[in-house]
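notes to self, project folder thing:

trying the whole complex as one job this time. last attempt i did each chain seperately and stitching them together was a nightmare. two parts in total, labels are on each line so i dont mix them up again. if this works i'll redo the older ones the same way
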Amino acid sequence: MSTSLEMKNIQKFYGPLHVVKDFDLHVQPGEFLTFLGPSGSGKTTALKMIAGFETPSSGDIYLDRRSIVDLPSYERRIGMVFQNYALFPHMTVGENVAFPLTVRKATQSDILEKVGRALSLVKMDQYVGRYPNQLSGGQQQRIALARAIVFNPSILLMDEPLGALDRNLRDHMKMEIMRIQKELNMTVVFVTHDQDEALTMSDRIAVIDEGRVVQVDDSKSLYRKPTNRFVASFVGESNLIPCRVECVENGRANIIVAGVQSRVAQLSGQASGDAGWLFIRPEHIDICPQGQGSHVHNSLEGVIEKTLFLGEMTRYLVRCGGETITVKQQNRGQAHLPGGTPVTIRWMPQDCTVLN
Amino acid sequence: MSVASINPARSMLQRAAKGGVGMDKILESGRVRGFITSLPLMTLLVGFLVIPLTYIVWGSFEGSQLSFGHYSRIFASGTNLNILLYTLRIGLIVTIFSLAIAYPVAYLLTKIGSRSFTAISIFVLVPLFTAFLIRTYAWMLILGREGVINNTLIWLGIISAPLQLLNTTFAVIVGMTHVFIPMAIFTMYSSMVRIDYEVTRAAQILGATPVQSFLRIYFPMSLPGVFSAGILIFISALGFYITPAMLGGPGDTMISILIVSQMTTLLNFELGYATAVVLLLVTIGILFVASLFIPLEMIWSSSDSNLSDVSPRAGARFFRTVKSALNPILVLAETVAHATTKPLLTRNGRWLWGYTIIILVFLTAPLVVVFIISFSSSPFVVFPPPGFSLRWWEKLASATDWQQSFLFSLQLGTAASVIATTVGTMGAFWLVRTKFVFKKALFLFSLSPLMVPVVIVATSLYVFEARLQLLGSFFGLTMGHVLLAVPYVIVVMAAALRNFDQSLEPAAAVHGARPLQVLRFITLPILKPALVTAGLLAFLTSFDELLVSVFLLGRQTPTLPIKFWGDIRYQIDPLLSAASTFIVFLVAVFIVTAQVMRNRHNARTSTRVVG
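result (full assembly):
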């Protein structure tokens, strides 16, 4: 069941619109890969090209090293779960799940066995005789999943499958999908605009912006080491502060940020004299009243503009020169700093990177 | 205007508002509102449909004598029985042809952009709203001895003597199919458009070939729409009068022709009643069988019920059994069809477009022929015309009898349209807004003038109005037309009311509007496009109506269709073509105007934020 998928230099034009650009991607057998991007970024178009609903304007797609661009959808052996499930309303659950086998003319006993197995995998065995409109959203989702995997497809595509569910159900289904994926060792391409889904479920995430893959990485690297400003702001919360590189010393650089010189940061390919954006996660910044604490780290002086108490943490908006910097602090009983307090904020050199 | 003059005006308004308080109190009660809005509709339906029908049923077995003699006469006579069977057969053939021909067009309409949609729908709408009479007349021109087809074939040298095409069963079938195709297209389209296209995609990615995904997914999902179009056409075809009477031969007597001749020439009223009752029973029987498969109200207003929410009915379960028995044949058919169609499949549906254009030509060609012949220089109907002249248009312009008929039809249509729109809109408010048991049954009841074949409505009203001394009065005739038009108004208005955002009314009330003010300033203005459509449909219903007018006219000026009908029967000349062209043109202007008004209204009131 595990098959590799490769997209080579895919381009897609709708008239003058260039919706998918230079798409290059290699999905390993058994890998859970997520297309993450805002709506309109072209991620669904990319998925449709894998499914065969759209033809790439140029480029090639390989399933298991075999080109599939010229195959019609029905010969690709791909399983797919649709955003609105697309269950067949005039068929029972059993008939829906059996559909991929029926159209392939499987024998009756084979069908019975495989449908039974798929339904028990999604824990819906007792609903065989129901019609889709007699099921809840989560149940329909499970049936759509069972239908997509019942014929042992080479790879499974999922187009925002959790979008229509409420929050609790969504968290539950995330776990279920991960369990089934591991159990069957399936190659999965999952499309979403929800970063939580992407971060929890995926082996790797391909962040897509304006039709282009901007970064492909596992969750941790993506969160810790975004390679550009879009990824930094789209995945998780981040501070992006305009800065200038002063001089470079073995990979680290001294920079000017918020009008203050000699902060130490990591670089992502800049040379001295370049302008860029300093990227720091809010939870990587320490905050304390001015004059307290040591000065071993990078630090800036500022005034608290606003304090927001969020339960397990407090969010501070700190004004430093012309910039507003967000700081998140776990609440472990330390002093609550009200708005207007002059503060020092500090961060470690390894927690900040200059991005273009 | 000075400030001083505004102030008295304002205090007058306040006083008027105070006077309205009692009225507002009364209107607050839902029951009172229900009573007021239902009263006109129920009076109309009971007074002009139920009582007349009861009278006919009563009369058919001679009242208290309970004599079934007339029924036994119908069933004893081989001729009558044959007429009944012939009617059913023609109905079935026409239904199947119209559905099969219309299906691909309806399918294409669900797939195309709005500009192509408008283009195609105009080609379908104009024939749809052209009177049956005119369309049938066009077929007489085409199929006649010197008609388009015969002349072309002779000119090509394929035949030497004209074929007998007119006054044959073939002509009846062609004419009726032509009449019903537009109806089939729109009825099926309105249900097919709600099938989620994603579903056929899902089928294909799961391994179904295009043929399989059509046969197993799309087609079964479109069946309720096909079925309701079929029922609609079948019961209309059973009561059809104009086309078989004009295009058919002596052997092509349909049951409505039989009833009319029993009532008007043989003057055997009781036998006519009995025949009408038989036709009524057949219709009811068909509707009953249909109700086993689909909710009946879906046939007339498909926007009502969401198909996918309907759990399978008894009839559908029966089909399921049949289907599984036929499975091997289905598999074979799929394989063959897949092998043959695979090279023909193109992404842009070129074949479908080609087919659709042929059908559109078929739908509009008869009207084009009528148009061309109206400019003929010949005193006879020949095609192609020997020369161009405006003589027939000049004759039409000076024909006072045609002008009188036209004016009378205009008056009648306006009166019927105003009354039907008022009564129907009130009724729709009642049916949609009030909560009560038997709501569905009452909705169906209010559509019943559409279900009862027109010939029965006509005969029953004739007898009933004769009794009340209403026969031959303008009021009596208008009410006949109102009865036929009201269901259309109800269908249109009920759909509009269901889509109406009801939170707007409380919002107006919170801002200080009284119930009648809410109606005047909020509800009715928003419903304006629907009201225009409803009024237009009611007007066209009356403007095209023949049978009821024939029975109820008395000694008044003949309506336009009656004038037309009389002239066709004793002489066909290009004057009729000129008159037809004029009417078609008028109707087209009406439709386009209504469409433009609707689009402008929608553009202005659309709640979508521009940006």
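what i see at first glance: Chain B has two domains: 28-61+396-498+524-606, 70-373.
need to look closer tmrw
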